Amino acid sequence: MSKGVVLVVDDEAPIRDILGFYLKRAGFHVLMAENGRIALEEMEKVQPDLIISDLRMPEVSGDEFCRTVKGNPVTRDIYFVLVSALDGSVNKISGLNLGADDMISKPFHAQEVMAKVESAFRIIAMQKEIKRQNSELTRYQDRMNAELALAANLQMGLLPSLRGRAPGIRYTHRYLPADGIGGDIYAITPLADGTTALMIADVSGHGVTAALISAMVKTSFESHVRLGGGPLDWAKGMNRDIALNTLPEQFATALVAQLDPGKDSMCYVVAGHTAPMRIRGGIGGGLHRPELLPGKGFMLGIDEYLPFTEQCAPYEAGDRFIFYTDGLVEVERVDRSYLAEEGLVRFSSELPEDPDIAAGQLVRQAQEFNAPNTFGDDVTLVVLDRLS
Q1: Most CB atoms within 10 A, among 99, 241, 271, 312?
Q2: Is the pTM of this model over 0.90?
C-alpha cells in the first residue's frame, strides 16, 4: 500500500531518477515532470500529497509553479518543497515567501531529502486529521444550529400571538432571546368567569436548558390556573413544581396576575420579578405619569415551602400595563450606569396609542440608551391595554 503520492519536478532527468528511486523504495507512489507546465498537466489527472520541485526550469519555472499551486484553493494545501542550487538564507526566505512549505539546497544528499519527505508526511497526516475533525465539527455544528433553530421556533410557538385580544383587553409583546433561544416566557389565559390570568417569567441561565425549564414553567402555570384559585395559589403551585423537578441551582423569577374587569382590580404575586408598571388612561397614547406597582418576593424553585404574598392594584378601563423581564433594564453601559426601572418609567411617560408601536419604541429607546452595548440577557416586554 502506497504511503502517499509525491510529484518530482526537475528538468534534469538524473535528479528525477535518483529521487524517484529512493521515494519508490520508501513506499511512495511517484509522479515525474520535467517542468511546471507538465507538472500542472499531471496534477489534473492525480493530485499529489507532496511536490518536490526545482526552482530553475524552462517554460514554467519552479517559483511560478509554486505560486500557481498555492494560489489555487483546490491545491493550495499540497505540501510544496522547492529545490534550489542557490545557497543562503535570503534564497530560502524568498522561496518560503512564494508559499513553499520547505526548501532544499543543491547539491543535496538523498538521505536529507528522504528525511524531509518523511517529516512532511507526518505534517500532512496531522493536517488531514485536523481537516477531518474540523469537518466533523462543522457537521455537528450544522446539526446543532438546525436543532436550535427548530427549538427556537417551537419556543416562539409557546408565546401568545404578537397582536392578541382577550375579553376587554388587547396586548402585544417583544421577545429577544440572548442566544437565539432563551429562558423568558409569558402566557395570557382568558378564564370562564370573565377574568384573565397572566404570567411572565425569567428562568435562570440561557440556551436550551433555560428554554426547557421555561416551557415547564408555562405548563405549570396553565395547569394550576385550570385547578382554580387565584394568583397566590398559582404561584405556590408553580414554586413546588420547579423546586421538585429541577436542579437546586435552577430557579425562575415570575409575576403571576389575575385581571378582573368586574372589580376593576388586578391581583398579583411578585416572585423575585420586576413589578409591573401601570399607566392610568395610557391606551389613548400621549403624555402620562406611569406608576411602578409595589411588590417583592422570593424566586420560584428555591424551596417548595416558600411563602408568597398577593397584592392588588387598580385595573380600570383605559389603563395600560407594562410587564417586562429585567434584561430590558439591566444592561451595564460604558459609564457603568443602567437604564433601571426609573429609566423605563421615563420612556413610558409618552407612548403612541398603538400598543405594538409602543412596544417597539420602548425596546428601541432601551437599545439606544445602552449603545454601543447590547442586551446580554433575554428580554421580554408585554404591553397590555384594558379596553373596557
Answers
A1: 271
A2: no
